[in-house]
Design a protein that fits this description.
Bound molecules: 5-hydroxymethyl-3,4-dihydroxypiperidine
Shape: globular
Number of helices: 17
Distance between the termini: 12 Å
Number of strands: 13
Strand order of the largest sheet: 1-2-3-4-5-7-10-11
Number of domains: 1
CATH topology: TIM Barrel
CATH architecture: Alpha-Beta Barrel
CATH class: Alpha Beta
Radius of gyration: 21 Å
Length: about 450
């Protein structure tokens, strides 16, 4: 079927009953209100003030004002027909100094949000850490310091104690690859450090220790919780026939795609990556790998694109691409899901992020006719259906993102939302993709399109 037909025939996919259609966001990208109700400072508040760090000089200080407008947002999600909403909790709202006293007002906000979602019939999917580390922890070394992992365990316990009676689905971390590598190696993200890959692996290890401590804390507070982690994958396609092309491809693949999933599945860190970075692994304490491999209920998979690699490294993506310059490649998602299932063998996977930044031209009628985004979503949902048909138990799909938001070092120039935000009023304006997603959800829930597996 042609891509355009895939997008128009929204009743074609046969997902299992109970498949969760959702949308995703994260705290710093949408909340704003960075000084409200005792919130502490995060590394992103600090990083955004560094000259040149953010492409458009902006920050998440106001973002989408979700902290103030969350009730309207929940109503909009209900209108969309979402089954699930994936959001993150801002650590600095709960523990302003990173470790120590709990700020009840911060917990109150998420308490209200969770109740509001449940009242609207929307299941909360909660991520504990989506990159907004309390800056006082960074002052003490951040993720290079193991104590940050211990502090995360205590923070996780505080959130789970308060919300564990109503939130079933928990993710410890979002994309620890990005926290470790963009935060401590390339410096593109907060805290903006440019250190060695070996230092990046120290940070990555501490993130995984934090994950393990978080899993324990959540299970202690909420024994029936379904617990996972959201990992991002950028599969590598080797270009060029040489052994050197294969070697560089294998190293990049190990750093990007294998580093986190393999220890979660009980294997050691990939040897080829440790060797390439001359990583001593001194930070790994005797019981760490057992802590990291704690059984999970599900894995969250964030997928946007693949990367082409030769002996020189990652190559510019061939077209078609999104405005991020990321190649649009849905078939890789089907292959990725099979590979992930082979590694983890779990009963449940969620696509916890998938979506596209597009130019979003406003038509004469004032509507954002984002047919390109609709096609991206349709072809990727079709790719998920393909994986489901071949036996991968994918249980849900969360579009990134619910609204245009603060795209980290790229500011507000990259637009991933299915809703735009009107400047001045902060009104959420549905793009054509929001209407499409709404129809697709409603069609997929129609009784005649709910057989047990696969696509036609
Ligand atoms: O906006 C980000 C999100 O915070 C994490 N995953 C990728 C998205 C798009 O870059």
């Amino acid at each position: 079927m042609k891509n355009a037909d895939l997008a128009t025939n929204t009743a074609q996919w046969k997902f299992p009953p109970g498949f969760v259609w959702g949308a995703a966001t994260s705290a710093y990208q949408i909340e704003g209100a960075i000084s409200a109700d005792g919130r502490g400072r995060s590394i992103w508040d600090v990083f955004c003030r560094v000259e040149g760090a953010i492409a458009d000089g902006s920050s998440g200080a106001d973002a989408c004002r979700h902290y103030e407008l969350w009730r309207d947002d929940v109503a909009t999600m209900k209108w969309l027909g979402l089954d699930g909403y994936r959001f993150s909790v801002a650590w600095p709202r709960i523990v302003p100094d990173g470790d120590g006293a709990i700020n009840a007002a911060g917990l109150d906000f998420y308490d209200r949000l969770v109740d509001g979602l449940l009242e609207a019939g929307i299941e909360p999917y909660l991520t504990l850490y989506h990159w907004d580390l309390p800056s006082s922890l960074e002052d003490a070394g951040g993720w290079l310091n193991r104590r940050t992992a211990d502090a995360f365990g205590r923070y996780a316990a505080a959130v789970a104690d308060r919300l564990g009676d109503r939130v079933t689905h928990w993710m410890t971390l979002n994309e620890p690859y990005v926290s470790a590598n963009l935060g401590y190696v390339t410096g593109q993200h907060a805290p903006g450090q440019r250190l060695s890959q070996a230092d990046g692996f120290d940070a990555a290890h501490h993130l995984l220790v934090a994950h393990g401590l978080g899993v324990t804390a959540i299970r202690d507070a909420a024994p029936d919780a379904s617990v996972g982690i959201a990992l991002n994958f950028t599969p590598v396609t080797q270009v060029g026939p040489g052994a050197d092309d294969a070697h560089v491809g294998a190293v990049i693949d190990a750093i990007h795609n294998r580093w986190f999933i393999e220890p979660l599945a009980g294997s050691p860190y990939p040897e080829i990556a440790c060797r390439a970075a001359q990583w001593s692994g001194d930070v790994v304490l005797p019981d760490d790998m057992d802590l990291i491999r704690a059984p999970l209920d599900f894995l969250g998979i964030n997928y946007y694109t693949r990367q082409l690699v030769d002996h020189t490294g990652v190559l510019a993506a061939p077209g078609p691409t999104t405005t991020m310059g990321w190649e649009i490649r849905p078939s890789t998602l089907t292959e990725l899901l099979a590979w992930v299932h082979g590694c983890m063998g779990l009963d449940a996977y969620y696509i916890t992020e998938n979506g596209a930044a597009m130019p979003d031209v406003v038509s004469e009628g004032g509507v954002i006719q984002d047919h390109d985004r609709i096609e991206y979503l349709a072809t990727h949902i079709d790719a998920v259906a393909g994986a489901v048909a071949s036996g991968v138990p994918v249980r849900g799909y969360f579009v990134w993102s619910f609204v245009d938001n603060f795209e980290w070092s790229l500011g507000y120039e990259q637009k991933f939302g299915i809703f735009a935000i009107e400047s001045d009023t902060y009104r959420r304006i549905p793009k054509l993709s929001a209407l499409w997603y709404r129809n697709m959800i409603s069609d997929s829930q129609a009784p005649e399109s709910a057989p047990t597996t696969g696509r036609p």
